[in-house]
Amino acid sequence: MDKINLPFFYQLGTQLNPLVKMKVGTQRQIDISLAALPVRDSVNGLLAWSGGLSVCRTSATAFINATEEALKWLRKVKPEDMDKPDSSTDAKFRLIIDKAKTFETVLSEELVTSSAYSASKKGIYSTSDLIEHADKVFPASILDRFSPAIVREIQEAGKCLAFDIPTACGFHMLRATEGVLHEYYLAVGNPKKNDKLENWGAYIAYLYKLTNRQANIDEETVNHIKKVLALLQQVKDQDRNLIMHPEVVLNVDEAFILFETTKTTIMTMADKIPVRSSKMGK
Asked: How much is the average pLDDT of 222-241?
């Protein structure tokens, strides 16, 4: 997916417009050259764009070639001979204008048929923020506690939310929550093995056992686990279990609520998760 640079197309249009209106014999050849140079550079940029247009590429290349031929002449000609009448020279500069007109027409037609969409803002989040770095909804001090895999899940969730793919957004945020849940389980439970448990229910059951007064855990941690359990149980019963069924589809509002709910749950668990060292794959 490529981000479309709308100002680029506006600039290209402002560059093309004066050039296509020029006429050989009315404008000096140097003036046509000066008008063609910025257009050539912009068209080269368009051709280099990996997600660029396809139909106009042939006419774009033809315009560039015509411009280069005229510039070769311009570099060789003596200043005193620059404006002397010459049919072959006139043909070179006329070709620039003709090819620019063709390119403008083809580009305009292709832009009309091209798919371009505007993604609506979700809550306080801008579209670009959700697409490019949704993980920044968490402070840097929180992100430092997450594995790269968890961060990727959050980023994918943000993209799905931005582009109105709500069920996928929920799926990715739940996967991120599950990843953080495992890290939380390791941090507060200090189990003998680091293996993942079978499902959310197993994690929740384990955490419930830790709140038993027989567990060797301080009261502050016990209260924190209880808070986490309340959040996890809500997410599990109202969202996770449902989304695991193929027939359930979220709408955009539901996905946004789930995004916010899981964000709160993740941040709460992160309080007890240590910052990852470089050896752990920060």
From this structure: 85
Instruction: Provide the residue type at 264 as one letter.
Output: T
What are the domain boundaries of the chain?
6-113, 127-280
Read off the pLDDT band of 70 (50, 70, 90). confident
Segment 176-199, tens digit of pLDDT: 999 999 999 999 988 888 889 988
- Long-range CB contacts (< 8 A, 24+ apart) of 50-53? 50/2, 51/1, 51/2, 51/4, 53/107, 53/110, 53/111, 53/114
pTM (predicted TM-score): 0.69
Cα–Cα distance for residue pair 202/277, rounded to 1 Å: 28
Domain covering 127-280 assigned CATH 1.20.120 in the classification: yes
Q: How far is CA 1 from CA 49, 60, 200, 215, in A?
A: 12, 23, 34, 51
